[in-house]
## 1
Amino acid sequence: MAVHDSSPRRPGLRVPALRRAGRTAQASAEPTAATTASGAYVLAGLRILTGFVFLWAFLDKTFGLGYSTPSGRAWVEGGSPTGGFLGGVAVGPMESTFHAWAGAAWADWLFMLGLLGIGLALTAGIGLRLAAAGGSVMMALMWVAEWPPARHLSDGSPSMSTNPFVDYHLIYAVALIALAAAGAGTTWGLGRTWARLPLVSRNRWLL
């Protein structure tokens, strides 16, 4: 009786096991899809906010909106966007070089076009690789200008550096690289449309 009773139950026991496995697989897949979508929205938000940082810096320095740039020192009124920052460098291995660059027309134009281009690219979600490359170079130069490793400035006064390596310039550079690597322009952006353009499809570095 024991053998007879157990044999017909074996096929019946397999079906619920398969159903439970199917439900488990489906349940595990659903959070993954939701997590991926949530991650895309988070990256898109980070992209837009970072883009606004660059765009606002461009607008404030161009028109002197009264935040970091007073109205009388606006670029459109003859002020120099690089004169104050580079001229005030007081530490680091490129101190004299930055002083020589401060206020030069080519430096002002490169700096401002960089702010505008990076800001527009991030906000629109296009050309993120170029934005990451250009933005990382800009952030690296600004990091060297502030030179966080130094505890004291050239005149011996405290540098007020709180970390010898990591500061917000490096965080911005890493964020730009991460956004480009993740292709963050497809959500809340024009990334897909941009990628379908013939010029961009032939030159993937323009993505």
## 2
Amino acid sequence: MKATSFPRARATALLAALAAALLLAACGPDAAAPPGANLAAAPELAWSELVPKSWDPTQRYRNLSLEALRDNDPRAVQMLEEMRAVWDNAPVNVALDGSAARLSGFVVPLDNTQDGIREFLLVPYFGACIHTPPPPANQIVHVIAGQTVKGLHAMDTVKVSGILKAARYASADMGVSGYEISPASVERFVPKRPD
């Protein structure tokens, strides 16, 4: 997404989106599979595991008073452009690079043909990259399915399995991803019902 004129509400949305992604996605086991592990036995990763523990994109903005900035204030526009650059260059968890993994999330199609979708971005929360500013790069996974998936639509929930790689991919409209799974096994995500 291109930064042009961002109101104060957009700054708040950027910070809220990161917080929501990290809080809502904190489920699943804490350990990644060792490289070369069987994909069928790959652990389910929590989205929070994709973020290096030392990375804090909000640190430099903690003492700022966003209420003091008006929507058309050049300082607000500059701050949002800087925040977007920080998010687009967000570091990845290098310990996960090359490991077998499963990850559940929402589909943001990059291709959509009559035969289905083969390439998409996997994001941690509904509306990411479409209705809200994109999440940080370490919260977006570029997925290339081993085969086209029929009946898949934007914001459908899926579970993706494969080898997770640290790799940047920039979509002109949807955001920058910090990870890739290719070729990926894609299945519909069906939440477990409580007993």
## 3
Amino acid sequence: MPPRNRRTTPQPQLNEAARLSDQLQAAGFTKRDIARIIDRDPSLVSQFHTRHKGAAFVPALTRVLAAVQTAGITDTSELAAIAAPHITRRSTAEGTRARVRTKAVLITPAGTGTGRAGTQAIASGSTRLRTLIAEAARQNLRLAFTVRLPKSGYVLPSGSRTDSPGIRRDVIQRTDHTEERSYGSSATGGFDARDFAQRTDQTGGDVTAAIHQWLVETGRIHPQARIVHLEIRTWRPRR
């Protein structure tokens, strides 16, 4: 008996942004890395495949992929600098620049909140994190943060108990010679958000500078070290 012809559903063709994203992932980058490079939320990178978005990022991703393949550049900060001049904003029907939808900074009723800043946001002082810190201070919450910078920028060696005692999260080392380290946790009590809100006010709202200043004052990084990624986390202390 001859085999039946089975109908197969054709696979949707990838758009150019999705194709470039796949090539970057094949080169070792994650969706989160790609999102940092184009200074957008990782969910948008996923929508290159599911909702055929990303046309505005094709010129930037093309140049990033060329930098990876021809120059061997793997540092996401350098790639972000390459991408930035080629990212254009969408236009409205009236011809004006469309607003970029960004993830709102939110603190839940339980007091938990998270905010992140990539390369471009850090260059402008991570000001969008100021709202999170200010609200955490108003609610008397605790605060912790994770920073990423070149390994040579740290004073203390990786895994040092003096650097960040009691933190269970491992130090994350990356192939671009940067390293992520976490400071504060619910287990150790974290930091008073009011202190960092005051520090941020003293630096004119520059969250990057406030965190950098604390790290230098406490002997954790060299003054010339440059933060390339920053994450703030909050929670309500147990009474």
## 4
Amino acid sequence: MSAVSPEKTLSVTLVKAGLTKIRYPADLVHDDGTRVTVRAPWAAPHTRDFGFVRFEPGDVLTEHYWRDRWFAVKEVRTGGGELKGWYCDITRPVVLRDSELLVEDLDLDLWVSADGASVLRLDEDEFQESGLAGRDPAAAEAAVRALDELEHLARTGGLAKLLRRDTSATPGTAL
């Protein structure tokens, strides 16, 4: 669980229901031993329109993962730097092994628009259908608590505070 030095490329592996959903390279921005921040272009070769936001080739995601929290927060920007918003995944705490960042997606998500006016809970039906509550009730409870916590932070302006860090450790990567 030790911190990794910046300027290293990691492989982010997103697992869902025991299967690898996607794997992509990302540049390590910061690792303080608890939170790992990486930056990567939108990994799909095509546009994904969610209705409330479009992820497009050229978009850049700054992704924040925690070793002690049940979520990840992904800041989404256009290639030109315009903030689209934050896509938050409910996950088990992240594991970093060598240069692989292992992320287990638990289906629940939250979208927060750039202006903070839109805060949307997503995929609660998928979460119910996943059967996690029956297989691992403690994990299901932690996932719901994490979604509630993120929604509260988003609605009270705490999301920006959560993502702030001492930028003196990695100049030029202020969040």
